[in-house]
Amino acid sequence: MNGLLIGRYQPFHKGHLEAVIFGLSKVENLWIGIGSSNKSHEKRNPFTADERKEMILSSLDSKMLERVKIFFVPDTGDHEKWTFHVDSIVPKYDIVFSNDNFTITLYKKREKNIIEVPLLDRDVISGTNIREMIVSDKDWSDLVPEGTKKALLKIDAKSRLSKIL
Fold first, then answer.
1. What are phi and psi of 29, to 5 degrees?
2. Sign of CA dihedral 39, 104, 13, 87
3. Residues 128-148: pLDDT tens digits?
4. What are the φ/ψ torsions at residue 15 (nearest 5 degrees)?
């Protein structure tokens, strides 16, 4: 059985890692869709799809990597067709993992099997909060896996975020 987990991963943080672990506990293979893959260097989407892919791949262990494949899912601008667009990119899946209300609504309209992902300390662990912490020199490194931390330091995320936030 295959599952689908879509997110923007701006950046990939420990909550996302827990969602991957949760998904892998329910399915044999997990397709990870990097949403808004056609956007970068903007306030809500500062990192490129390739940077986010690197964050994810460098944060998963070898056993997980054997069961995960990553796909770029660009925004279409048409919400009604978006899930069908996802289907044209991602191989067949049986379950959608999400905690995003909009994503859940769109897939429920298609009567897809949805499992809501438990949120890990959502008040602190969110992409928005982590991006703001990076810019304001607060300690954010405990909120992301080591692979993401290295990727963010490599691209000088603080400098980029300072220009766009």
1. -125, 145
2. negative
3. 999 999 999 999 999 999 999
4. -65, -40
